[in-house]
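the four lines:
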Amino acid sequence: MLLEVKDLNTFYGESHVLQGLSLNVAQGELVALLGRNGMGKSTTLKTIMGLVKSKSGHVIFEGTDITGFPPYKAAQAGIGYVPEERRIFPELSVYDNLLLGIKGGKIKNPNDPNVWTIDRIYSHFPKLKERCNQQGRFLSGGEQQMLAIGRSLMGNPRLLLVDEPTEGLAPIMVQEVRNVLEEINKKAGVSILLVEHNLKVALSLAHRVYLMGKAHIGYQGSVEELRNNQDVRAKYLEV
Amino acid sequence: MMKKTIKPILWLALLVILIFFPKLFGVYYTNVFVTFAIFATYAVAVNVLLGYTGLLSFGHAMFFGAGGYGTALALKHIDGLALMPAIGIGFLAAMLLALVLAPLVTRVSGTAFAMIHLAFGQLFYILALKLRHITGGEDGIGNFPIPAFTIPGLISIPLKGDPVNFYYLAIVIMGLSLWLMWFFTKTPFGQIQVGIRDNEKRIDYLGYKIPQTKAIIYVVSGAFSGLAGCIYGLFHNLVSADGSLGAMISFSPIIAAMVGGVGSFFGPIWGTAVFQVIEELTHRFTDRVELVMGVILILVVMFAPSGITGAVNTMKMKWHAYTASKAKMEKTS
Amino acid sequence: MDPTTSMYVAQGIHGIAYGMVLFLIASGLTIIFGMMGILNLAHAAIFMLSGYFCYQIIAMTGSFWLGLVLAPIGTGIFGIFLERVFMRSIRASGHLGELILTLGLSMVILGLVKVFWGTQSLPMQVPEIIQGMVNLGGLEYPIYRLFIIGMSLVVLVLMVLLLYKTRLGKIVRAAVSDRDMVNALGINIPVVFMLVFGVGCWLAGIAGVAIAPILTVFPGLADQVGMDAFIVVVTGGFGSLAGAFVVSIIFGLLSSYGIQFLSQLAPVLMVIFMAIVLAIRPNGLFGVKE
Amino acid sequence: MNILETKDLHHDFSGLKVLFGINLQIEEGERHAVIGPNGAGKTTLFNTITGTYHPSKGKVFFKGKDITGYKPHKLARIGMGRSFQITSTFTRLTAFQNIRLAILAKHGIRFNLFRHVDKMKDITRETEKMLERVNLINERNVPAGLLSYGKSRALEISMAMATDPELILLDEFAAGMSRDETHNAVALIRKMTEGKTVVIIEHDMDVVFSLADRITVLHYGKILATGKPDDIRDNQDVKDAYLGDLQV
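prediction for all of em together
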């Protein structure tokens, strides 16, 4: 297993937001984490990343126990994080935003085709190249999303945590972001744990899904199984 | 039940000690106690703002000084002014200053509030030094007349040069001030004030006006700081920039409140007591009061952020938990 | 130049020189505040400490230039020490705790300075090359103040280069807006904090050395100049470098022309200016809402 | 008669548009739920109605009166109360003191500096009655910051109701509660809001369908649908909004 999350318990003050949550992601897999708002999906990603501290439980990445690591150590271990709000640095140019994604400020083997360089990001996201000198705050929502993904790829992560990448985007951009995630997963071989509210996008990408009920995993299975299980969909996703 | 009978006895004992204090401990310690009473009142007045409302002022010396200069100037320039009106003038001077500043300072909070007061405090210090013809500059206003405490036709108690009589005046006024401020925190308004410290937004949504509420607290805090400053000026028969407006005059009540515990009404009084003892000791052995105070401040913030009263409460809770668990153990066995 | 004009010009240059020194102090305060949210009340004491360091280095080696370079570096290292030992442990206790802690630190530094160097004013001689007067189109002007302006400009340019051209600078600018995201990109934020704190103290150190030959070195330096720097930061808007710069220069000019016309009451002008600005904009001239 | 109405309400955060022309109508005496996917603008709508933000365009009417731009304290005084998504009590005051502040506010006792608050018998009695109604009487002397999560949420809700407002807005009152706690909270709200108008924001569909008389669905800052629970459940647009335009 690339990522194993075992029995996480996370609190916000007194509020028990993750109650014994476990999940895993295999090498090369794209796993979707679905569920209604407020169930704890984003908190799960944040806890894995170390942005939120868990009270108990373990996060094991590539066999190393990274529980309680500060975010920068989790990132250095090989996890990339694309947050829900994108969190582009508004004062910095697109180029500089990408630059900060490089670990230690230097790309080790720039000629290795499997290593992400700024040029390689530009070839995947031509729009970013066009706007490379613009400040982050002037980008559209879709471009910010591309930049957020590109920025985390610059750290050459083996696992990408992506939180609601299509939220608030126009349909054409949704499609584009979807395709980018597919490329990253299929062609570049980066494993992805995806939180996504758009079921169509999620199911068209994922190998496996987890459905979250309140603060825990309520259901897991393959995409096919979910498609055929109206009861589960009604219980965890629909109105 | 025990508590109900013990409390009046304790108060009575305190009263007896206060009455016979000068007889028991002599003039030197009587004067030390007057200083303590003044600074305890001042620290409580500062804490009404700091602990109860969460507003940290780095410039309360301006109120302390306003009280002192107000009274001293009045006594110096108005012939035949009686004592109580003179003290009243000091009190009102500080109150007026707070009223004038309130519209500006209640709009900001947190760090900006602290820093604005630092600047204003410094401003008044400089003014006192430079406006020599009014304030006497570095020498200050000294040796102004101090009228006797009189009730016409009844009594006349001379105060100038009589430390014991002055002691009684000071503790009565300071005691009264402390009681008034304590009562203030117990009124419905006092409850709103504590609410502001905990959660300003909610207070707003309950229908209370925030800036007006803050302004009243601010004026109360300033006025009683002024009263303390006024008694301090009378006590030394001297009001000077360094003695009444210096930065340490602004910082010492904060330190006292922090050491004693900002979360409780009486915390600053304990803090002042500790502060006085330390100052007394350090003065005796070194003149590095600042250094010692700085070290204490750092230690308190790092290791006992809720001060003496906080530490005592924690110990109390632990003791209760301990006795409770012990009682349980005995019951089961 | 007739005497009146030359007097105005001279006071103007005086004001700019003082403004630049203020900005050196205020910029460090501002960067630290912007990134870490700490208003470091010990900053003024650190500024003063640098003057003493410089005095000591000159006393030991006889070289002003050595003091000019080494004293700020020493101050920066001292700042790193403070950050590691004190600031880090206090982050959780909120603004009140930070203000009180840094106030305590400033009292301790002041107390220690008095232990080591006493309370008297220590004069500082500058090398002959920057002593004396220079003729500026008919105006006799002290070279040393021009030297201060020049040096401050060099530092300013260096700082702009550092902030806009280096990776560290970009990290700092990014961290001012979103610390956690920078952290999540694999950048060791605690180390960056430490460096920023060090650089901030280094800047204050340069100001301390620059001002020492004019005002001499004495414990009251922290109150006198430091207070002005704090007023600058409050008036300019917490965390805004542009605000700090503009207000520094305004204050420098206010103070030098103020001395000309109001002699005694020049400092009052700054507080009044601050009060007016805050009455209109409670978050400072360039401040954004918290 | 509509107790609350918004007309063409817009709001943006420095250029980022969050609300586009909301026309919300809340009938007197109904329990109304506002639902919608994350980022739909629900809390912003609440904040614009209750005076935290000033709308960039449009108006808010309360009992037919234009209250656009009223500050929170003014709204509280004319009969609008709200609770918060993140518990917002006075953490260092006891449960009793928390409720008492609300009761004092209800009676308009604000700048009273001459009476000892503990000696105001009527206030004490009323506060205790309230504590009993919301099952917090055993926690009377516990500081709000030390209450269990469920209890502190209950306190949060009862503070909004203790001022006896005609219209109560509850923002995700069940957030972070366990099943049982949610169940109790729903029962509490039913009991306490008899005859009042209630607007809730909620994600938990069980809560929404067990409480609401009518539902408004918000999507990308616009009203997608308003209607009875069953109509909303069957509405294709609403389904799409929640699930993406998925055809299974």
